[in-house]
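The protein record minuted underneath.
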Amino acid sequence: MELETSIFELFEELLKHCSVISISGEAGTGKTSFALYLIGNLLDMDGSCVWIQASEIFPRNRLVTMFQDNKRQYLLENIFITPKARTFNSYHDQLNFLKQIASTNLNMPSDLQFIVIDNISHYLRLEFANVGDIKKKVDLLDRFYENVLYPLILKCQRQSISLVCSIRCNTYRICCWFPACIRYRSNCP
């Protein structure tokens, strides 16, 4: 319990200085569960979270087993899931939705503290695999980062919202992107 408390104290301190938390790892390593655990423990009792189901359905049953009575009820009422009934159908659906979030408020809660994008990389990886030419692959990635992710990160910075992204890859790590490296696109610590 003491280790758990110190880990969350560390994350609370990091969130004062960074606007993006990236949780990456192989399939089935617990990225979604860890994101849910973070949100459940760091969400203020007067805050809310928007959980974007990019390629996986919101883990409601995990939330119910992870948290007790009052906390569980608060989370169920204050984690807003989008799209509501399903995940995105394609890269273009996800791309258009994330562009909308970056450019408008899309009826976001006024007390928004976190945005979670569960498996932001899924459709990007599929789209990337379908492009044969290396120049087109580079263009695809550049467009995604410059037109979607970068504006979303800047919006989160301006509005003091923490952005949590789960990313499927071959290594497990947790990375915080600090505002200075985002603003100036220099090397991150």
